Amino acid sequence: MQYPKWFSDFVNGVAVDLGDREDYSREYLSAWFLDPANLGLVNNQIHNGFEVVPYYSNAGKLTGVAIEPEMGSEEQAIYKANFDAFFYGREGKMSLYGSYGSSAWTTLKEGDSTVTRVNRSELARTYQIYAKEAQNNVDYLVKLYLKNRASPQSVNGNDTVNGGYWAEAYRSVYYPRSEPGL
Fold it and tell me: Does an H or E element contain 176, and which?
């Protein structure tokens, strides 16, 4: 399957950040980033219209897939941050997987020997903290993105309406005022 260069570079960067883990292969990561639900989350967050577009050969065989329009670096950063939040949440759940029904010991000592087992609850709490920090990062990046992409409501340069009001009935003093244009 062929992907655009920017997408392949993006997925490779995420894989390298994860340390080239077997459970997060490039194929898995590509599928995660091309999942319409995950792409829809980004679209909802930044009010955009990215979509997965398949490419077919003349014989009708699927030859490649792309996200169109091409994501810029800001959109990619938000998408990566969404993946980080997913990753840490999933790792937290996986750290607890299989811990139910297991014995409650964490340290055994006999003579000079000591065996310590990883406390899965503490590991899950650590991942939960990382997931929360990752979600805060997503929120921050989205806020900055929307702030920097905001456009003015009026582009004609005149967004005020001249007007005035009388101070009191017995005074004939006119105070100028302006109001935002409608």
Answer: strand 174-180
Query: Cα–Cα distance between 20 and 166 in angstroms, integer?
Result: 74
- State how far the Cα of 106 lies from the Cα of 118, in Å rounded to an integer: 7
Longest Cα–Cα distance in the chain = 101
> Can you give the residue range of the structural domain that contains 106?
5-148
Please check whether residue 58 lies inside any domain of the structure.
Answer: yes
In tens, the pLDDT along 55-90 reads: 999 999 999 999 999 999 999 999 999 999 999 999
DSSP structure string for 86-110 = HHHHHHHHHHHTT-TTS---SEEEE
Is 12 part of any domain?
A: yes
Tokens representing residue 115 in the block: 């065996």
Whether 92 and 84 have beta carbons less than 8 Å apart is answered as no
Tokens of 33: 């980033």
Across 9-168, where does the E strand assignment appear? Answer: 51-56, 62-68, 107-110, 113-116, 160-166
- Per DSSP, the three-state class of 181 is coil
Residue 139: count other Cβ atoms within 10 Å of its Cβ: 13
> pTM of the predicted model, to two decimals?
0.72
Adjacent-strand bridge partners of 55: 64
Helix (H) or strand (E) holding 167: none
Task: Give tens-digit pLDDT for 139-158.
Answer: 999 999 999 887 766 666 66
User: What total number of domains does the chain contain?
Assistant: 1
